[in-house]
Design a protein that fits this description.
Number of strands of chain A: 7
Helix content of chain A: 25-40%
Number of helices of chain B: 9
Distance between the termini of chain A: 90 Å
Number of strands of chain B: 2
Radius of gyration of chain A: 23 Å
Radius of gyration of chain B: 18 Å
Structural class of chain A: alpha+beta
Shape of chain B: globular
Strand order of the largest sheet of chain A: 1-2-3-4-5
Oligomer: heterodimer
Helix content of chain B: 55-70%
Largest sheet of chain A: 5 strands, antiparallel
Chain lengths: 230, 197
């Protein structure tokens, strides 16, 4: 009786002990690297969305029980004047999980650039929000054809640059983005959704608008029209 | 015991996906691109081989009624090792495989081989069985991913195959995986029955 309880318990405990020890060893090697990678992703994202700006401070604002993390930044134009810029974390529920992006806006409420830092959407569909528009082709790699310079900003995210957050952003279904669409989309303050991933595209758009709404309660923005009137 | 047979049986004769019909969930989920398939193969084979090794070594001291919790602890340990290592050293891969790395714990191939083979056989045979099964899993996954990525994304290892060709996105989502797997099963059975007949 005693043996049938004590012995299995000891064996199971021993297995658990060894496995915990192995994992703690692995974790001590990988944990600092993982933390470093997370920091790198964030600082690289901030650089992407606020090019030329210097990030000054990280702030938090709470609106209706929801918290928004944002950064204040400034860019020197000449000796006296400098322009403000902001970056905030926009987060929303996508098709299969949280979609998080860092959004850079200038002081008129225009998007400078966005960078999607976290997503777990369907590979080949929603996950293409992080896809680079590659010019490489299979034939090009084997035969050494002309590939041209590669873009470093995913095409889906590139569409957001220059959109005006004082108006609603429209989500149009025009198929995959290509440079020819850029002008038309900018005029309509619109993006073209990823084919087969309208939910993901909407999530990004809505999370940005929601984040901007919260940011407005903490910082003031001058819409471009008013600025022109001054 | 024929060691060579223990190794090659996983590739065709006892292919875990096409013949035994286990491990279908990760097969369908991670075969949307060839690079995902290859990384999944590497991760699953690593876990399979090492859990087979450990289980064949400890099979003598494992009380029969406790074998499932012990096997799962061993498997979960190796999966966590893979999970942490990929997260730290291959963040891109880790991101694109996502939840399917931790889910290797419940991959039937691994627990299945622990139960059916490693807990009854010696170290060398178990290692070879793990390698063979991993290779069989990987080959099936890669062939599946080859067709899915080619037809569904017009790409191969991330490179465009035919510029300007509009791919069929159905091949990227689950139905495309089922249909392709169906064709592979058909092909395999047709070949086997013709050989017999």
């Amino acid at each position: 009786m005693m043996n049938s309880i004590v012995k299995p318990t000891l064996i199971l405990g021993l297995v658990a002990l060894i496995s915990a020890w192995v994992l703690s060893l692995v974790n001590s090697v990988t944990a600092p690297r993982i933390a470093q990678l997370q920091r790198d992703i964030r600082s690289r994202a901030l650089e992407t969305v606020l090019p030329g700006y210097t990030v000054e401070e990280e702030k938090k604002v709470t609106v209706n029980g929801k918290e928004l993390t944002y950064w204040r930044a400034a860019k020197k134009i000449d000796e006296k004047t400098s322009r403000r810029g902001y970056a905030f974390i926009a987060s929303g529920q996508g098709y299969s999980g949280e979609v998080q992006s860092i959004v850079g806006v200038d002081d008129t409420g225009r998007i400078i650039a966005i960078s999607i830092v976290l997503q777990s959407e369907t590979p080949g569909l929603g996950a293409r929000c992080q896809e680079l528009a590659s010019k490489k082709t299979l034939a090009g790699v084997f035969l050494g054809g002309n590939n041209g310079p590669e873009s470093t900003v995913p095409w889906f995210q590139q569409q957001f640059a220059g959109l005006d957050l004082n108006r609603k952003i429209q989500v149009l279904k025009k198929g995959d983005w290509n440079p020819d669409m850029q002008e038309e989309l900018q005029q309509q303050n619109a993006i073209s959704a990823i084919t087969g991933a309208t939910i993901t595209s909407r999530t990004v758009k809505e999370s940005i608008e929601r984040g901007m709404e919260m940011l407005r309660s903490a910082e003031s923005f001058t819409p471009p029209a008013e600025e022109a009137a001054k | 015991m024929n060691y060579w047979h223990e190794f090659v049986k996983g590739i065709w004769e006892r292919n875990p996906i096409l013949v035994i019909g286990i491990g279908l969930c990760p097969t369908l989920a991670t075969s949307s691109s060839v690079s995902n398939a290859l990384w999944m193969t590497l991760a699953a084979t690593f876990v399979l081989v090492f859990s087979n090794i450990i289980i064949s070594l400890i099979k003598g001291i494992v009380p029969p009624h406790l074998r499932i919790p012990i096997f799962i602890s061993v498997i979960a340990t190796f999966v966590t090792v893979v999970d942490l290592t990929l997260n730290a050293f291959q963040p891109e891969v880790y991101k694109s495989l996502g939840i399917f790395i931790p889910l290797i714990v419940v991959n039937c191939i691994i627990l299945g081989r622990a139960e059916e083979f490693a807990s009854k056989n010696g170290l060398v045979a178990s290692t070879l069985d793990g390698l063979g099964m991993g290779l069989g899993f990987g080959l099936t996954l890669t062939v599946l991913a080859f067709f899915r990525e080619m037809l569904g994304a017009n790409k191969l290892l991330g490179l465009t195959v035919i510029p300007g060709f509009e791919p069929s996105s159905m091949m990227i989502i689950a139905p495309g995986a089922f249909i392709t797997l169906g064709f592979m099963l058909w092909g395999m059975n047709a070949y086997n029955s013709r050989k017999k007949g």
